[in-house]
Amino acid sequence: MKDGDRRAEGNDSIVKEFVLLGFSDLPNLQGFISGVFSIIYIIILTGNSLIIIITMVDPTLQKPMYFFLANFSFLEIGYVSVTLPRVLFSIWTGIRTVSLPVCATQLCFFLILGTNESFLLGVMSYDRYVAICNPLHYPLVMKPKKCIQLAAASWLSAMPVQIGLTWHIFSLRFCHSNQIDHFFCDIPPILKLACGDTFMYELSVYIVAILCAVVPFWLVLASYSKIISTILRLPSAQGRGKAFSTCSSHLLVVVLFYGSASITYFRPKSTFSAGLDKLFSLFYTIFTPMMNPLIYSLRNKEVIMALRTLILKS
Fold first, then answer.
1. What is the pLDDT of residue 300?
2. What integer is the mean pLDDT of 91-116?
3. Are 293 and 48 in contact (CB under 8 A)?
4. What's the CA gap between 281 and 284, in Å, rounded?
5. If we measure between CA atoms, which residue out of 84, 117, 48 comes closest to residue 292?
């Protein structure tokens, strides 16, 4: 570390910038990792942008379900853009240092967008619940104004909580090291570098995680328990198959997102491993946003038809 990176204070030295180690432990694979991540980023941008475009221009997709899907795709673009470009920049330039304010900004946006995704998945499950369990009331309940309000609430409600949590975490003093063994500024590896006891900070992280992830997840489970119960009571096999088809894509995305995120943030501290943290983080920060457009397009006939029409017109 450079002499100016820390300031002496008693027996401690205060970290003024971090070093994101990323995948530096794989020096012979830097070119391969860079190529794979570049292709993934292009796929994410292209796939999610196409979903946004077709939901805006195709009249058959002017429905609440696809309105929320467009919001979700826009969110995914922002979500992955918070982390992946920085990873590529570090690989291409070899510059891995990041100041505390920049690290805090990245973490804050990552938490806000991740919470937005959690809330929006809950809203999308509510939309499917109303559509399948109360189809006659669906046009009255899911009016355009109501959809906009739900989407706006998903976007805005996370901001004050996650800004406060980020400020709380970065009010700590960091003195153990300035090396973050991760590819972006995430909570677990940052707390490892803090001076003194971090129990209260970890407790606040768990409380926020319960409010912003567990509660929406229980909403999803409650919605789908009602949905599955309603579908199983449908008289025809064709009707059951069609109903399951409209929900399976969303349910698969829910499993991918909540599964990998829960393993990262809710497993016991004693089992933390930098390698596993990176692996699980890759799932919900990069792999899931890449898979979402494929899941929604390949498993939805209306989306396939809209894409085909857009390609033929162009």
1. 74
2. 94
3. yes
4. 6
5. 48
SS3 160: helix
Give the Cα separation of 129 and 161 in Å (integer): 28
**More confidently predicted of 25 and 49:** 49
**Alpha helices, DSSP H only, in 82-186?**
84-93, 100-133, 138-141, 144-156, 158-169
Question: What pLDDT sits at residue 166?
Answer: 95
Question: Mapping DSSP to helix (H, G, I), strand (E, B) and coil, where does residue 36 land?
Answer: helix
Other CB atoms within a 10 A radius of the CB of residue 91 amount to: 21
Task: Tokens 């929406």: give the residue.
Answer: 216
Total residue count of the chain as it appears in this document? 314
Q: Residue 204 is encoded by which pair of tokens?
A: 């606040």
Rounded to the nearest 10 degrees, how much is the dihedral formed by the CA atoms of 198, 162, 118, 291? -90
Rounded CA-CA distance 39/113 in Å is 22
Are 304 and 298 within 8 A, CB to CB?
yes
In angstroms, the Cα distances linking 74 to 52, 90, 97, 236, 291 are 7, 25, 29, 36, 14
